[in-house]
Amino acid sequence: MTTTITVEGMSCGHCEETIEEALEEVSGVTSVTVDRESEQASVEGEAEVTALVEAVEGAGYTAHA
Predict the structure, then answer these.
(1) Which Gene3D superfamilies is this protein grouped with (predicted)?
(2) Phi, psi of 62 (to 5 degrees)
(3) Is 43 in a helix, a strand, or coil?
(4) For residues 2 and 15, what is the distance between their CA atoms, to the nearest angstrom?
(5) How many Å apart are CA 55 and CA 38, to the nearest integer?
(6) What is the CATH number of domain 2-64?
(7) pLDDT per residue over 10-30, tens digit each?
(8) Residue 64: CA atoms inside 13 Å, Cβ hemisphere, count?
(9) Enclosing H/E stretch for 21
(10) Residue 39 carries which DSSP code?
(11) What is the C-alpha end-to-end distance of the chain, expressed in Å?
(12) Is residue 24 classed as helix, strand or coil in its secondary structure?
C-alpha cells in the first residue's frame, strides 16, 4: 500500500534525508520517497498514517495526510 503525505518546511536535500530517515523508522514502512519540490512523501508499507505524520513532526516539520 502506498500512502502519500504532505510535508511542509523542507528547503534542501538534507531536509529530505531527515524526513526519509524518520519515516523509515516507523514500523511497517518498507520504502520511502521524499520530494521537497512537491512537498510530498510517498511511503510504501502497512504503517498507520498517524504514525507517519507523528514521525515527520517529530523530525521538526509539519505534515498532514
Answers:
(1) 3.30.70.100
(2) -95, 135
(3) strand
(4) 21
(5) 19
(6) 3.30.70.100
(7) 999 999 999 999 999 999 999
(8) 1
(9) helix 13-24
(10) T
(11) 14
(12) helix
Dihedral of alpha carbons 14, 19, 24, 29, sign: negative
Tell me which DSSP letter residue 27 carries: T
Q: In whole angstroms, what is the distance from residue 21 CA to residue 15 CA?
A: 10
One-letter identity of residue 50 = T
Mean pLDDT of the chain: 97
Residue with cell 530517515: 21
Q: How many angstroms separate the CA atoms of 1 and 13, rounded?
A: 26
In degrees and rounded to multiples of 5, residue 36 shows phi and psi of: -70, -30
Long-range contacts of 25-28 (CB under 8 A, 24+ apart): 25/55, 26/51, 26/52, 26/55, 27/51
C-alpha cell at 29: 514502512
